[in-house]
Design brief:
Belongs to the pectinacetylesterase family. The chain has two domains: about 375 residues, 3-Layer(aba) Sandwich (Rossmann fold); about 130 residues, no CATH class. The protein contains 21 helices and 14 strands. An eleven-stranded mixed β-sheet has the order 4-1-2-5-3-6-7-8-9-11-10. Strands 13-12-14 form a three-stranded antiparallel β-sheet, with no helix packed on it. Bound molecules: 2-acetamido-2-deoxy-beta-D-glucopyranose (2 copies).
């Protein structure tokens, strides 16, 4: 019955939208809305129950997320960079966030390099000029220091009082690119990674890094690769008697072929190496022995690094599963689609292949395991980057591994595909709090990711690697001009903002308004906290956001929001379930567009 109503909704009536007939049509459309509404309601319930179930004791959760602004750290632009030509891809100054150490940590330094993939083509580098990954014009002016960067002893007992630096990554090539490779034909792209590295080290040295007693160079994903590439250089900058280590989080990229046996990952690295001249930044012995792109893979890199290294890695790192093992191109018929988005959806054949991938990781780590100075934490979370996540790094939710099994290989009894390996380093017991990660966290992370990824099939923006440059459509922030006079202000008194892309063609008179989410504040403290974030102040809003999904300007990604599918207009619909789902989703888009029009008319 519902289907019939949906089917009878000839979209030809859209032309009568503003006439009296419109309300009659609207009544019919109500059925469609009801059907969609129900689906949305069920969906909302499941989302709500997820949020509730993931935070079982909201009191502890609240106590845990202390409401304060002291972990929001300002961006510092590297001013010495201009004279030295140490510039982001777009020619702007690189930046970092720095919090001074104190007490027993005053002479210790923790550097954390932000991740964010890389650019392997001219187009993808140009795309980065419009994002924080290629330009400080788009960097967050304040970031939270969480996990390994947290300033609270109970969240971060090992490093809370160290000098902590979060380095923004804006050269697209592991802070290691070479200006010799810049294009000489008018394409404005700066390949200054090496110069950025040197400029940042000089600036931090002048703040006391050169006199450090203990130092850790760390990073997530491609930032972790940058940490490994620069690890020994970093060591040499510091006093001989200092304890210096490096940490790669989710940076153990494997030199593995994809499910179609194509060397996807290796060819990606080859393109980055060639584009930005990385060979000059890699280990010379390695480059002499093999193709330079192979020397970026950590399994080769660690053979040459003399400084102790710690790896935090998941055997089922979701980035690697989605890009190394099962890149989209290797799955033209979408047989892997469900599995690659959530490993709980994999069938037994697919799990075998994932186990094989895990086997390759363990094999690659085999050599490294003999390295007495190093350490590793290998988990089975479907996750990518863990050290900045306070819940995983050190929290009541983290399960401790007992001291007696610490330092040995531990095969989890709970989960047949889980393996935790923990090796002791110099800071092991006290500082590698990561050992606290346990089965609950694995389960927690799996739920978290399975929930947050299920509904975003391949949303490119949430993935660290951005291959389809052309697919992005950036829209500038507009501040509401007359807001001030009317007193229409954000929590902190700044003008509210929106991003608007003008309609065109047959959509020129149709409007889609999409309101951003972001929870709410239920206490004076939590409202005050928002004043320091984009949820309470336009000072912190992104100045440009990509329009994707329902906001996309590309017809292929965002099928007509107003024109219906021909089969809807003719009412030829079958009752088959898949067809129903497909059409309902489409009419959901239609009705959202029209609902917003009516809202629009009413409001003005
Ligand atoms: C510059 O050279 C690169 C590679 O040689 C090419 O892809 C690009 O289109 C050129 N740009 C211009 C503006 O000619
Ligand atoms: C698992 O799924 C793949 C892809 O859909 C299929 O080829 C394979 O036969 C399935 N294996 C099992 C055991 O169902």
């Amino acid at each position: 019955m519902v289907v019939e109503k949906v089917g009878s909704n000839s979209m030809a009536n859209i032309s009568g939208l503003r006439g009296p007939l419109w309300w009659m049509q609207w009544a019919k459309r109500g059925w469609a809305i009801a059907a969609v509404g129900f689906a949305v309601f069920v969906f909302a319930l499941s989302v709500a129950s997820y949020y509730r179930s993931s935070e079982p004791e909201s009191n502890t959760a609240n106590a845990f997320h202390r409401i304060t602004t002291s972990d929001l750290i300002d961006l510092t632009l590297l001013h010495s960079a201009k004279d030295r030509g140490a510039l982001c891809l777009d020619g702007s100054l690189p930046g970092y966030h720095f919090q001074k150490g104190f007490g027993s940590g005053a002479k210790n330094w923790l550097l954390f390099i932000e991740g964010g993939g890389w650019c392997n083509t001219i187009e993808s580098c140009i795309l980065r000029k419009h994002m924080h990954l290629g330009s400080s014009k788009h960097m967050g002016r304040r970031v939270h220091f969480t996990g390994i960067l947290s300033p609270y002893p109970d969240h971060n007992p090992g490093f809370f009082n160290w000098n902590r630096v979060r380095i923004q990554y804006c050269d697209g090539a592991f802070i290691a690119g070479h200006p010799d490779n810049e294009l000489k034909n008018g394409t404005e792209l700066f390949f200054r990674g090496r110069l950025i590295w040197e400029a940042i080290m000089d600036e931090l040295s002048s703040f006391g890094l050169s006199k450090a007693e203990q130092a850790l160079l760390s990073g997530c994903s491609s930032g972790g690769l940058a940490a490994l590439i620069h690890c020994d250089e970093f060591r040499h900058l510091l006093p001989k008697d200092a304890t210096v280590k490096c940490l790669g989080d989710a940076s153990f990229f494997l030199d593995e072929k994809d499910v179609l046996h194509n060397p996807t990952m290796r060819s990606l690295f080859r393109d980055v190496v060639n584009l930005q001249g990385l060979a000059k930044s890699l280990n010379k012995d390695c480059v002499a022995r093999m193709e330079p792109e192979r020397c970026i893979f950590p399994e080769e890199m660690v053979k040459n690094i003399k400084t102790p290294v710690f790896h935090v890695q998941s055997a089922y790192d979701f980035w690697q599963i989605q890009n190394t093992l099962i890149p989209k191109a290797s799955d033209p018929h979408s047989h892997w689609q469900k599995c690659r988005l959530n490993i709980y959806n994999c069938n037994s054949t697919q799990v075998e292949i994932l186990l094989g991938f895990r086997g390759s990781l363990l094999k690659a780590l085999n050599e490294f395991e003999k390295n007495k100075g190093g350490g590793m934490f290998i988990s089975s979370c479907f996750i990518h980057c863990q050290t900045l996540m306070t819940e995983i790094w050190h929290s009541p939710k983290s399960l401790r591994i007992k001291n007696k099994i610490f330092g040995a290989s531990v095969h989890s009894e709970h989960d047949p595909i889980a393996i935790d390996i923990e090796k002791e380093g110099v800071w092991a017991k006290k500082d590698w709090a990561i050992a606290a990660v346990g089965f609950t966290v694995i389960a927690f992370a799996l739920t978290l990711l399975s929930n947050s990824w299920r509904d975003e099939p391949d949303s490119e923006i949430s993935r660290p690697f951005l291959p389809n440059a052309a697919a992005f459509d950036f829209v500038d922030l507009t501040l509401l001009r007359n807001a001030k006079d009317r007193g229409a202000l954000c929590l902190d008194g700044t003008a509210p903002g929106y991003h608007c892309r003008k309609g065109f063609g047959s959509g020129a008179n149709n409007w889609l308004l999409h309101i951003e989410g972001g929870g709410w504040c239920n206490s004076i403290e939590s409202c005050s906290w928002r004043k320091g974030t984009l949820l309470g102040s336009s000072n912190y809003m992104d100045r440009r956001v990509p329009f994707s999904g329902i906001l996309s300007s590309h017809p292929s990604q965002n099928p007509d929001t107003v024109m219906a599918h021909p089969s809807l207009a003719t009412g030829k619909m079958s009752l088959r379930e898949d067809v129903l789902q497909h059409r309902t989703m489409r009419s959901f888009y239609n009705d959202v567009a029209i609902l917003q029009v009516s809202f629009d008319l009413y409001y003005y």
